[in-house]
Amino acid sequence: MTVVNGTGPGKPVLFFDIDNCLYSRSTKVQDLMAELIDKYFAKHLDLPWEEAVRLHKEYYTSYGLAIEGLVRHHRINPLEYNAEVDDALPLQDIIKPDPELRKLLEGIDKSKVKIWLFTNAYVTHAKRVVRLLGIEDLFDGLTYCDYSQMPLICKPHPDMYKKGMREAGVSDVKDCYFVDDSYLNCTKARDFGWTAAHLVEEGLPVPEKTASQYQIRHLSELRAVYPQFFKPV
């Protein structure tokens, strides 16, 4: 799987978010990550627990990533943060190979579309997740938030969508298709000109206003949403 270099022009690209998208929220990875982030805020900013939780939420809401606020306002080293948060998650005990997901991805006709990972996580976390899911060989590449480069560029900033297009080798926003569990990321992708499917898992409340062109409850619905990219059943 290519990490940063595009695979050349000519095909549309279907961008996949990773966390809470390629695996279910029921894994509670997000809860474990939130706890590690809160601990990081409390420890490194010397904050009471309640203030650490509040500030974490504020930065996530404002910037799309808690680390963005830490870097902007506290000059935290992003790679040290990554080591204590994302890379400290016991993912090997939680995320297992997903044959159903693999079958869905194998059903995509790659003569018609590239499939590309598109995440706000750092490269180490992104690669670890898809390896544990047993699908790392199915993607054409990966665009991630590079914690080693300042300023940080992440969804939903327009520069992140531009970065994804550049690295995936696609020049026209009309050739960009997307699935993400984040309402804001899907809204901004739509505004940028992409076609987006907002994943709202079963059991989660449906937003009053849809985030983007499509809203789905399960990744399997991508067959109906983007039928032009799938092999005949």
TrEMBL record:
InterPro entries: HAD-like_sf, HAD-SF_hydro_IA, HAD_sf, Pyr-5-nucltdase, SSM1_domain
Highest taxon listed in the record's lineage: Eukaryota
Gene Ontology MF annotations: nucleotidase activity
GO BP: any one term: pyrimidine nucleobase metabolic process
PANTHER family associated with the record: PHOSPHATE METABOLISM PROTEIN 8-RELATED
Name used for this protein in its record: Suppressor of disruption of TFIIS
Organism: Metarhizium brunneum
